[in-house]
Amino acid sequence: SSDVCSSDLSRVANKNFFELENAASAVLLFTAAAALLAANIFGNDYANGIKPLVNDYLIAIFFFVVGQELRAELNRSLALPAFAALGGMVVPAIIFKTLSDSPNWVAALPTDIALVLGVATILKVSPALRIFLLALALSDDLLSIGLIALRGSLDLLHLLPTVGATILGLVLPLKFSLQRLSDLVIVPLFIFVNLGFEFVAPTSEAWTLAGSRTIGKTVGITLFAFIAIKLGAKTKVSIREIATGGALAGMGLTVALYLANTDQVKIGLLIAIILSALVAAAIAPRNQSPAQK
């Protein structure tokens, strides 16, 4: 029947998407290592020649793809993951602002979908949790883009490749996807030109950022999801799985670097990636059945 055919096509599309994100996460980690190596060999200005091109123009492709993904997800119920994503931004912000007066608190908010889904695959989480994480990350992207639009420090040049590109992705019914180009070329290039820094000891700001992301994302996403479920939201994932997803959401690079780009922010983000992966591994459900895997 048409319903069965549609379901099969959806499963194939999801499988291809997650395989792409797994590849993207590997490329991202390799690129991050290359950026750190380049900065410590050639200095912090190793990518100055191409940084304006990447940050002001090519990054628009990434935000355009975010718009396309949001358009595709509008057919799903985003209420629970969107509310959970809100909690995953509010709680880290509260923790960071309580512990520090640094203006870089915004770096505690965004999640990186490629990293999240890549580590989720290593942990062999259930298909239902992977779908939840996808919707969560896209909701997170939408909230982050709203934050970019609201920040008074960004001028029109920054709004066009971010908010403008996202809106275009939402409204233009393209018959082809730029996702592979974005995930395997644009995002790694952005990470390469922006992440590198000469190694220095982490300050309190870096540790505050790492703690805000690791603890704040785990607690915020789990708490807000629990509230939504108690209010009647439907879900196929358990609270423990949601907590695992919340911990994974502590990993972020691309949008976080776009919002706040200093050496201590970079150090904090890298520490948060390690801590978040360890927390997720510690609380992830065990003994899944083959069908769940």
* Number of helices, counting only DSSP H or I runs of 4 residues or more: 11
Number of strands: 0
Secondary-structure class: mainly alpha
The whole-angstrom Rg is 18 Å
Q: What's the story with the biggest beta sheet?
A: none
Describe this structure in words.
With 293 residues, this protein is mainly α. The protein is 74% helix and 0% strand. It is built from eleven helices and no strands. It has helices spanning 2-42, 51-73, 79-99, 113-122, 127-150, 156-171, 179-195, 204-230, 239-248, 254-259, 263-283. It starts with a helix and ends in a 10-residue tail after the last helix. Residues 2-6 and 289-293 have low confidence and may be disordered.
